[in-house]
Amino acid sequence: MTSGSLTGKSALDLFPDLFAAPAGDEQADTLAPPPPDPDWLTDCLDPGDGSGAANIPSALVAIVPDGRRALAADTLEKMGYQVDIVVTAAEGLDLLRAGRYDLLLCEADRAFADLHRTIRQLPPGRRRLLFYAIVGPRLHTL
After folding, report:
1. Residue 102: which of 57, 134, 61 has the closest Cα?
2. Exposed end of the chain (fewer CB within 10 Å): N or C?
3. Among 74, 131, 75, which Cα is nearest to 103's?
4. Residues 59-88: pLDDT tens digits?
5. Whether the predicted model's global pTM rises above the 0.90 cut
6. Are 104 and 133 in contact (CB under 8 A)?
7. Mind listing the domains of the chain with CATH numbers?
């Protein structure tokens, strides 16, 4: 075979035996296994009380009472979060001690200074599991 006779040919043309279907494989597509049973997913989603709330992310919103707090809570609920709203830092600390939150949305305000101090002092293992977002009218991002 000369190099000129190979020009313009694909691997399928040059090696047809390598790309041919094995003998007796005509029914391979029709013998595909059935899809797995999705019942195992309910065990992951159901904490045992039937509520199905095991994998629902939770958010704690600590913003002074105004329209921004309602907007933040509504937005997080639309994103799929279960939202708890606190008015004081003491309420926020109680809820943080009692449960596990995936997100803490806290205002940079003196009313929540104790909450900020507590978050800073959390052990690294627990702090890494919490998205801590600080918001406020004086804070700006690019």
Report:
1. 57
2. C
3. 131
4. 999 988 888 889 999 999 999 999 999 988
5. no
6. yes
7. 57-135 (3.40.50.2300)
Cα–Cα dist 118/137, whole Å: 22
Place of tokens 């918001």: 135
Token pair 């059935």 is at which residue? 34
Place of tokens 């094995």: 22
What is the mean pLDDT, run by run of 10 residues, along the chain of 142 residues? 70 78 62 73 56 74 86 92 91 86 87 84 80 82 66
Closest CA relative to residue 102, chosen from 75, 81, 119 = 81
Q: Which residues contact 2 (CB under 8 A, 6 or more apart)?
A: none
Amino acid code (one letter) for 125: G
Structure tokens at 57: 């992310």
